[in-house]
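Predict the 3D structure for this chain.
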Amino acid sequence: MYVTFSECVEKVALLALPGLLREDLGLFICSEEQHTSSEDATGNPVIVFNGADPFKSDNYDIYVDGEKIISVKSMSRAFSILIASYFVMNIAYPTTMVKSLTFLQKVILNLQDSLAKVKPVVTLLTNLNRK
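Done. Predicted structure below.
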């Protein structure tokens, strides 16, 4: 499987985002093995990749409430669908993921709403925009 440089950069950015905002990446994306052994019953959408490495995976499944809703080939598309799942199913962002999900929603996807700004997201944007 051939991966372009820009695809690698996208993957690194998406996987680094929760860490930059001090949130747990495992709440967003996990391997099939981690997903099947998980006892997480929160019902929150999650991305499940095949294989042991999300960088080398060629398939990403999005699960909501334990049910697979779609499979995609692109990690960036999987994260977009993850955000859309919250909107479509009217699920509130969990407090443990609100910073990363808000960043993805407002900055990456440019989906605005009436919710208050999340200070760590504003701080991260300010730091990223410094020259």
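The chain has five helices and four strands.
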